[in-house]
Design brief:
It is a single chain. Strands 1, 2, 3, 4, 5, 6 and 18 form a 7-stranded mixed sheet that branches. A 5-stranded antiparallel sheet has the order 19-20-23-22-21, with helices on both faces. With about 450 residues, it is of the alpha/beta class. The termini are far apart. Strand 22 (about 380-390) and strand 23 form a beta hairpin. Helices cover about 35% and strands about 25% of the residues. Helix 1 (about 15-25) runs parallel beside helix 9. It binds nicotinamide-adenine-dinucleotide. The site of nicotinamide-adenine-dinucleotide has 25 residues, from helix 6, strand 9, strand 11 and strand 19.
């Protein structure tokens, strides 16, 4: 049986990034992947969705320039070419991951791995022995077995549609539902979101959510919150989505129903019960080093719960690898979260409510894109919100709605992580003109010190 320092099951963002880093650190690594390197994120998740969203953002931008009579018309677009372009980007990235693993010296084994006792992994007829094993098997879409669920498509299928649907009902107003709803609405699909909870983005900064929702509504999406999907019926080539709203049954006839109601951990090749792997609810139970209860067996990414985000999986892989190498590792306290809607919504750290619950006295500053030189030049709507602690002036959290929010949040995340104070912000120099100036201005505004705000 061939011996390895590290066996990794699953080649998604958590698995592949840890495989590259471990091989670069000198470990003998084998990574097992039964489908495509890059996992959900690169193949049927984040990256292809962002390709679709980017084209939608461009279309909206062109439309706003048509309104200003700068462009004569918005022209035509090809949905087929968008889907083709999306696949080219996916293939390029997956090829890049393959090349990086190879050049780092990791062995990639294409096939379904089965974890056996004592850190042995079987793939087909071959067995491999690992000093350490990382389980990075990811997650898959949840299907709620409502009547007619087989008539729905999931997030994987929607990313492979051959034709732009004229209408679509999105069951679930979470991250996936919102991103795809916005992109398809911008393409011209008539979209209805059916969300069970009373509000969208319920755990985010209230003012930011209100601002964001007003912008999203401009895409013409019909948003039904507090609405529970009951069943889906066939109606020729169409579907009838039936949901309960304010005690009444309502029906929307549409071409596609997208079910986006969450993702569940994948245990392919991992018989947790037989192996004696501890669970935390539906997920594998891990400590802060991503160790499971089995010696030398780690779990990272969606299978281990926590934030179901690719960048969270990267960080978890880094924590596990540091533990294997016996090196110190301090993980950031907060994970930034971005929802790539139109406009983008990004946040990091605490909001007013969670700051209060943590014992702070939060004060909020804000700054609007309409008062920022770059925001105006780019014709963007948006707003930055910064939450600080009144007593210590430390930065506790940032929420950004608007263009480039997913980029600006990196700067904000550093400020929150390093707990920048009012004095720190006052001494900070930000390039002008730039959208990033708004993060500083909003932080200063928390103490009524913003220069460009009346
Ligand atoms: P989610 O948990 O974010 O949202 C699912 C929504 O479906 C919930 O709001 C829930 O109330 C609703 N719902 C459930 N049953 C319903 C019913 N019967 N009728 C109406 N609504 C119902 O899940 P998701 O959007 O599928 O995303 C899955 C995971 O993928 C998330 O954890 C997310 O973090 C991750 N993801 C992240 C990004 C990103 O970071 N940009 C993008 C896509 C996905």
């Amino acid at each position: 049986m061939e011996q390895f320092d590290l066996l990794i099951i699953g080649g998604g963002p958590g698995g592949y990034s840890t495989g590259i880093a471990a091989a670069k650190a000198g470990l003998k690594v084998a990574l097992f992947e039964k489908e495509h390197l890059g996992g959900t994120c690169l193949n049927v998740g984040c990256v292809p969705t962002k390709y679709l969203v980017d084209k939608a953002v461009t279309m909206e931008k062109v439309r706003s320039l048509v309104q200003k009579e700068i462009f004569r018309d918005a022209g035509f677009f090809s949905f087929k070419k968008i889907m083709k372009g999306k696949q080219e980007v996916v293939d390029k990235l997956v090829g890049g991951v393959k090349m990086l693993l190879k050049s780092a010296g990791a062995t990639v084994i294409n096939g379904e791995a089965v974890l056996e006792k004592d850190r042995t992994v079987r793939c087909g007829e071959t067995q491999y022995q690992g000093k350490n094993v990382i389980i990075a098997t990811g997650s898959e879409p949840v299907i709620i077995p409502i009547p007619g669920h087989e008539l729905c498509i999931d997030s994987t299928a929607v990313l492979n549609l051959e034709r732009l649907p004229e209408s679509m009902v999105v069951m679930g107003g979470g991250v996936i539902g919102l991103e795809l709803a916005c992109a398809f609405a911008a393409y011209g699909t008539e979209v209805t979101i059916v969300e069970m909870l009373p509000e969208l983005m319920g755990r985010e900064q209230k003012e930011a959510v209100r601002f964001w929702q007003n912008q999203v509504k401009k895409l013409g999406i019909s948003i039904k919150t507090g609405a529970k999907m009951l069943r889906v019926e066939a109606d020729g080539v169409y579907r009838k989505a039936v949901y309960e709203y304010k005690g009444q049954e309502e029906t929307v006839r549409c071409e596609q129903v997208l079910m986006a109601v969450g993702r569940k951990p994948r245990f392919d090749g991992i018989n947790a019960e037989a192996l004696g792997l501890g669970l935390n609810g539906r997920f594998l139970a891990v400590d802060e080093h991503q160790r499971t209860n089995l010696d030398g067996v780690y779990a990272i990414g969606d299978v281990a719960g926590g934030a179901q985000l690719a960048h969270a999986a990267y960080a978890e892989g880094e924590a596990a690898l540091a533990d294997i190498l016996g090196k110190p590792y301090t993980r950031a306290k907060y994970t930034p979260a971005c929802t790539y809607t139109l406009p983008c919504f990004a946040s990091v750290g605490l909001n007013t409510e969670t700051a209060k619950a943590a014992g702070y006295e939060p004060v909020m500053g804000s700054f609007n894109y309409a008062a920022n030189g770059m925001g105006l030049a780019e014709g963007e709507n948006g707003c930055v919100y910064v939450i600080c602690d009144k007593k210590t002036t430390k930065t506790l959290g940032v929420t950004i709605v608007g263009a480039n929010a997913s980029e600006l949040i990196a700067f904000a995340a550093l400020a929150v992580e390093k707990e920048l104070t009012l004095e720190d912000w006052e001494g900070q120099i930000v390039a002008h003109p730039s959208l990033a100036e708004m993060v500083r201005e909003a932080a200063l505004d928390a103490f009524k010190k913003a220069v460009h705000k009346g």
